[in-house]
Amino acid sequence: MSKRVGILTAGGDSPGLNAAIRGVGKSAQGHYGMQMIGFQGGFRGLMENRSTRLDGNILSGILTRGGTILGTSRDKPHRMLVDGIMQDMTETIVKNYHKNQLDVLICLGGGGTQKNALHLKQQGLNIITLPKTIDNDVARTDTTFGFDTALGIATEAIDRLHSTAHSHHRIIVVEIMGHRAGWLALGAGIAGGADVILLPEIPYDIDHVAEAIRQRVKHGKPFSIVAVAEGARSLEQAALIQAAEARRLNAIDKKEQKKAKKQLKSLEAHHSGIHTVQLSEQLELLTGLESRVTILGHVQRGGAPSAADRLLATRLGSACADLIAAETYGVMVASEGEHAVAVPLEEVAGRKKLVPLDHPWIISAKRVGTSLGD
Ligand code: F6P
């Protein structure tokens, strides 16, 4: 009997999701004769049993489209707002998996989705995941689809900001997404020739940043582009976060743990938008140059996927169909060089791939004279 394959997209949307749905769907149906059922709106769609058959023309013409034809949400199976109450909906999800007579559920998503997928695997479901996110922070895969497109968008933005920074003799602080990882800011910063790049992995010293900008002025370059990752933090902020983290780990009871978690959340809330504006104000004060802020935000997640993301998504999608045929479940389809490999979800979930401090990108950035604020 032909296999019944469920598929959903979860977490933030990302360019390349449709290419991946098409990659899995066309290979599973066309090559293996399987049936594809898409669930709408991430794990919530599976919980509410909102599904659509992915056959006929539905998979055609979507390779180049941004977003996801299935829709997405950040809902977690074990923590979902239903009727105004946060509830564990795992049981309903497991029931609906069986009700749809699925042989496997394919989950396309980033770090959070990998965790949720492992949770469902532990309930006895057959699961395969694909790594998607513009942040490139999923463990055990070389890269994730969405990253290359966002990298291109952020780089182009820095290119455009250069000419205006130059004309006005200004500092422009450009905030780049990436959650708690610096891949996107580092990659776009290097490719766009940013003068300062600030990453979550390297807490910065504001005086060093200001000095780097002043040195540029001294050398006849009275403008600077500062590419700041949304998760970047100063030395002082990093110390506060570290202390809150230690408090959470050493909490003697649930109440203390809750308090520490709340504090951590509020500290991290300052890590986008507000933090970038404050950084810009501080730099203006310390350098005497005028400074402006550009927050790229969701522009980085929008639009058509790049050629590299289409290729990656198609490659991983078709490899996923091979794994379904071989009944290799409980894994993420990872990219390793030119190959797709199956990595157990236990090795992916709950781990974040941050930029290693000795990464060639970091070394090259320093060699070409970019300040990393350290
Ligand atoms: O994970 C992708 C990402 O775009 C991060 O870079 C960013 O921190 C987050 O999602 C934004 O999430 P939302 O779209 O839910 O605001």
Short description:
The chain is α/β, with parallel strands linked by helices and 374 residues long.
User: What is the H-and-E element order?
Assistant: EHEHEEEHEHEHEHEHEHHHEHEEH
The shape, in one word, is globular
The total beta strand count reads 13
What is the terminal-to-terminal distance? Answer: 60 Å
- What does the radius of gyration come to? 22 Å
What is the topology, as strand order, of the major beta sheet?
Answer: 3-2-1-6-7-12-13
Average pLDDT figure: 96
- In the predicted model, the low-confidence regions spanning at least 5 consecutive residues are none
| Heteromolecules bound | 6-O-phosphono-beta-D-fructofuranose
Strand content: 15-25%
Topology:
Layout lengths: L3 E6 L7 H15 L3 E5 L3 H5 L3 E3 L26 E3 L2 E3 L2 H10 L4 E6 L1 H11 L5 E5 L15 H22 L1 E7 L6 H10 L3 E3 L7 H13 L5 E6 L5 H15 L4 H16 L4 H14 L2 E6 L11 H19 L5 E6 L2 E6 L15 H8 L7
Parallel strand pairs: 1-2, 1-6, 6-7, 7-12, 8-10, 8-11, 9-10
Antiparallel strand pairs: 2-3, 4-5, 12-13
Helix pairs in contact: 1-11, 5-6, 7-10, 8-9
Notes on the protein architecture:
- The mean pLDDT is 96.
- This protein has helices spanning 17-31, 43-47, 90-99, 111-121, 147-168, 183-192, 206-218, 235-249, 254-269, 274-287, 307-325, 360-367; strands at 4-9, 35-39, 51-53, 80-82, 85-87, 104-109, 127-131, 170-176, 196-198, 224-229, 290-295, 331-336, 339-344.
- Helix 1 runs parallel beside helix 11 (307-325) and helix 5 packs across helix 6.
- With 374 residues, the protein is an alpha/beta fold.
- It binds 6-O-phosphono-beta-D-fructofuranose.
- 6-O-phosphono-beta-D-fructofuranose is lined by residues 12, 74, 110, 133-135, 177-179, 230, 301.
